[in-house]
Every structure is written in C-alpha cells, then in structure tokens.
Amino acid sequence: MSSSVSTFTRTTQTTTCFCCISSFSSSSSSSSSSKQSRQIGPGGGKRRSVSRFLTSPSSVAKVDNDDRRGAVLFVATRTTGTENTRKRCRKRGVYISPCRASGAYEQFLSGITEKDRKDVSESWEKIMRWKSFVESANKNDEDVLANTKKVTIMGGGSFGTAMGTLLARNKSDLDVVLLLRNEQEAETINATNRNAKYLPKYELPKNIRATTDAKEALKDSDFIIHAVPTQHSRKFLSSVKDIIDPKTPLLCLSKGLEVGSSLMMSEVIPEALERDQPLCVLSGPTFAVELMQGLPTGIVAASENEALARRVQSLYGSSCLRVNTSTDVVGVEMSGALKNVLAIAAGIVEGLELGNNAMAALVAQGCAEIRWLAGKLGAKSETLAGLSGTGDIMLTCFVNLSRNRTVGSRLGSGETLEEILGSMNQVAEGVATAGAVVQLARKHRVSLPVLTAVARILEGDVDPKDAVDQIMNLPQVPEV
Ligand SMILES: NC(=O)C1=CN([C@@H]2O[C@H](COP(=O)(O)OP(=O)(O)OC[C@H]3O[C@@H](n4cnc5c(N)ncnc54)[C@H](O)[C@@H]3O)[C@@H](O)[C@H]2O)C=CC1
Ligand SMILES: O=C(CO)COP(=O)(O)O
C-alpha cells in the first residue's frame, strides 16, 4: 500500500491552509470545516480522527506504515504539536516526529560555530577548575559531620524526620534521636523503622531512633534541630530550656510568625530559652517527601554567626543537598513565614479556577508584598530573590504537595476552614501566620492587599470570590 498525500484548505479566517496525509484512507476528500475531522486508519480497520491533532495553520505531512503498531507514521513539517497533542497522538497510535516538524533543530545546529562549542566547553572547564580550587583550599576545614556523634530533633513530624534521615543516611554510626510527645508513636517508629503517621511510605535508616525522654534525647547532643510548629514553639522550648546545653547550636526549621507577638522564630527562641543560644535557621524549597526520596534539593543556612552557618553547611552538604550560607536571618525567616500565607492565596486562585494569568499576577504581587514588609525589617533583596525567597515561593505556590496551597485550594473550592483543618494531620503554618503578618505590617505601616485578604478569608470575614473582586477593583497603579 503506498502512501498518499492529500492537501486541503480550511476556509476559516484564522487558518488558511491545512495539509494532511493518509496512507490508508480510501477517501482523500478535503474538509471545509475546521471542526470536521479527517478519518484515517490502517487498511480499512478502525479509523482515527487526526486532523484535530494538527494545530498550525499550515502543515504538510507524509504518511507511512508503521509496522510495529499498525498505525500511521505522521511527519508534519510545520506542526510540532504541543506535549498534549503528542500524548493524544501516541494514545491513538499516531506517531508524530517532532524533530522534522519545523526544521528548528537543524536550524539550531547550523547556527552553532566551532568557536561557540569551544567557548561553552571552556566555560564548563572553568567551573570544574573552580571546584578543584575550592576543594583544595577547604581541605583543612573541619569535617563537621565526621566529628558529630549525636543529633537530636525536637518534633518528629514530616520535616524533622526528613532532615534527621538525611544526616542518618550520610553517616551510619551517627545517633539521630527524634524527640516526640507520644510514647506509642515513638515505640512504633523504633519497632518498624517507619514514621507511620507522617511519612509512612519511607523506611528510616537504622540509626534513627525515637524517644519521649527529653533528658536522654538532649544529653550530649552536638546539634539540636527544632522542628516543632511555630505556634507551639515557645511553650515547648520553655519546657526543655534547663536540659538544653546553652552552648549546643540550635538549628531551626520552623517557618512562621508567632501569633500575638508577630515575632520570628529567631526572636521567639532566645525569649523562650531566656538566653542567646547559638542559632541557625534553615529554610528553602524543601518538601519532606522529596528529601526522603533522595532528590536533589537546596536550602539556606542563615546565622548571624557566619562560622556556625558554615558548620551547618558542612554538616548537611551532600550530593543530595546543597546548602547556601547566609547572615541574613531576617530575610530567610521572613521569606519562609510569608510564603506560606501567599501559598494559601495561590491555592485559592487554583480552587476558584481563575486561570494561569491570575495565578502569575497573584504570585508576582505576593512577592512584592513580601519584599515590602521584609525589606522594612532589614531583609536583603538578594535573599528575597534567592533560594529561601523566590525559590520557596515557587515551590509552595505552584506545587500541590504544599499543605498551605492545599488549604487555599480547598477554601477556593468552597470548603470551610473548619472542615479543612479538621481533616489534616499536619500543620499548615500560613493559617496562623496570616493574622500575625497583618499585625506586623500595621506596625511597620506597610499595606499588603493580597496577604491581608488571605487573613480576612481565613477569619471568615470575606468569601474568597468577593475577596478576588475587591482586589481586582482596587485602583490601577504603576508597577512598583
Ligand atoms: N513538611 C515540610 O515539607 C516542611 C516543613 N517545614 C516547616 O517545619 C515545621 C514542622 O513542620 P512539619 O514537620 O512538616 O509538621 P508536621 O505537622 O508534619 O509535624 C509537626 C510535629 O510537631 C509536633 N508537635 C505539634 N505540636 C506540638 C507541641 N505542642 N509540642 C511539641 N511538639 C509538637 C508534632 O507531634 C509533630 O511531630 C513547620 O514550621 C513547617 O512549616 C519546612 C520545610 C518543609
Ligand atoms: O515549606 C515547605 C516547602 O519548602 C512546605 O510547605 P507546606 O508547609 O505548605 O507543605
């Protein structure tokens, strides 16, 4: 059976020419309607509709037998098709060869000169030389993980468990202790090597153990990791302050502002412990489940004490986790706390099905609001634009794994906050932080339309739809 090519013209205003090829269709009649599908199919068998896969105004295609699938090999010279189009074609046994579609690849290749290639490979070699240089310059630095024997994690929820797991995987004789409140949960973790409540799918390394004995857990720890949700942190820390060695560095993972005081964790911790404990905050785009899967991740370790931030970098840095150091504690903490509130807003936009334009506009506005408030408090712009700022905003606002985004999307779909929180067994810090953000903004005379609207929605003062209407009808302003 030989291939036949048929070309026909669409008479709609938007498309002028439409070319299609069929090897099997007995009919090569043309279509005058953009809606009308051209039927093709192998040797009189089931016919497939393919014309709706072709989206460009003009496309020339060549058809051949595809023996393996008994389907149609479809090579469109000007139709690359979207990923969806390709998927649909694959599903129906129609094969599109995108590389031939537009000649773009050939054009790309022909545009590259030998000099371009040399420049690119030289640039990469330079990066590799820099790597060797830094490694040899640092070879006498302390290997912090090697010198660490015991790490205690206060709070054995998803993130505490994941950050403990990373260390335990990197050093098999490290004693990693999860300090929990619930005896039964601790026993289950020890008996099953799984955190059944928070991360049931993942096996924990053998050198992680759980206990409810705070004294034993905190004794002789080289590092203490704080992974208790923000709103419970003050009370919890006050209860263990006398059994924490004042010299042991505390690494804080919690992202939020305290309700009532609007304080950041770096302010709550010294107040609760009644002293200046060595402190480093860790924040960035880091979903616990992806850490458990060993996927590449980046995080910022921020401390006013630069040497401590570097020690934390050495403790945690691995081929799974890049750790950037920073001294901008305010920037890192404010980003982490405020992005959770913004993620609720992003979820609301999703739940209301307002579309991608709305989502992008909302997140851009939210980034500006975070910059206005955090900037007033002294955050550096490069921090806000970096991993713990824009990086975490992108992750939490755009990815369904986020609990804060999920709260928003369920609110947007019409559920009540009571129903949503009642069905969750994990914390969504943005819910409590939203009101604290508004208080802080008032104190610093900063106006935050989107973040304030989130607080109003959460408090039940306004319906999500009405809040969107109100925001859209604010006066038009210059870009700031
Ligand atoms: N899960 C994640 O992917 C990430 C979480 N974080 C932050 O880490 C912090 C902890 O979050 P998750 O571990 O995910 O939360 P979670 O909801 O999974 O677990 C919270 C843990 O805190 C404990 N806890 C709750 N109330 C307590 C209290 N009154 N006293 C002592 N312990 C208490 C719970 O028993 C549980 O072990 C939050 O601030 C969160 O924003 C940061 C980055 C990623
Ligand atoms: O902070 C996080 C990722 O960086 C986790 O976000 P959620 O608390 O919204 O799940």
From TrEMBL:
InterPro entries: 6-PGluconate_DH-like_C_sf (IPR008927), 6PGD_dom2 (IPR013328), G3P_DH_NAD-dep (IPR006168), G3P_DH_NAD-dep_C (IPR006109), G3P_DH_NAD-dep_N (IPR011128), NAD(P)-bd_dom_sf (IPR036291). PROSITE patterns: NAD_G3PDH. GO terms for biological process: carbohydrate metabolic process; glycerol-3-phosphate catabolic process; lipid metabolic process. Pathway: Membrane lipid metabolism; glycerophospholipid metabolism; Lipid metabolism. It is found in: Plastid, Chloroplast. Keywords: Chloroplast, Lipid biosynthesis, Lipid metabolism, NAD, Oxidoreductase, Plastid, Transit peptide. One of its GO terms (cellular component) is chloroplast. Residues 328-468 form the Glycerol-3-phosphate dehydrogenase NAD-dependent C-terminal domain. Belongs to the NAD-dependent glycerol-3-phosphate dehydrogenase family. This is Glycerol-3-phosphate dehydrogenase [NAD(+)]. It comes from Bathycoccus prasinos.
